[in-house]
């Protein structure tokens, strides 16, 4: 009798393939196709807009989206390389207030370098300007610009006294 009850109450595990829209801990990253339990997909992933059902239409749209992202990344890399070639041998001048012995009242910051680059027609975000040692005196210093994850350029910053 117990065996009959056990067979009667067995639950069938239904699974389905879904496309993740965002990163889900324990499942995968965005645009991954994973197989999950039917209830988990319907009751959590779909309701919270974390995933889509892996239909041919949705698979095709994800494929097109990935292709567009790859093309955009390729264009950004080419543009960063072109800007890097132009900036490679540039000397950027920054004027700062200074005291005796060529000591600056403050330090040259990434914002100062970004402003000087923008005056010359180059738009570089201050977060991508790497100053290894604080610049607190007049002179010439090397600064690294991270234009793209694959493109870094060293430029020379010439700090002058503000007249």
Care to describe what's here?
There is one protein chain. The chain is of the alpha+beta class and 163 residues long. It has 2 domains: 2-82, Ribosomal protein L9, N-terminal domain (Ribosomal Protein L9, domain 1, 3-Layer(aba) Sandwich); 85-161, Roll (Ribosomal Protein L9, domain 2), CATH 3.10.430.100. Helices cover 35% and strands 32% of the residues. The strands form 3 sheets. Strands 4-9-8-6 form a 4-stranded mixed beta sheet. The mean pLDDT is 88.
Question: What's this model, at a glance?
Answer:
With 163 residues, this protein is of the alpha+beta class.
Short key terms for the protein model shown above:
single chain, 163 residues, alpha+beta, Ribosomal Protein L9, domain 1, Ribosomal Protein L9, domain 2, 2 domains, four-stranded mixed β-sheet, three-stranded antiparallel β-sheet, 35% helix, 32% strand, elongated
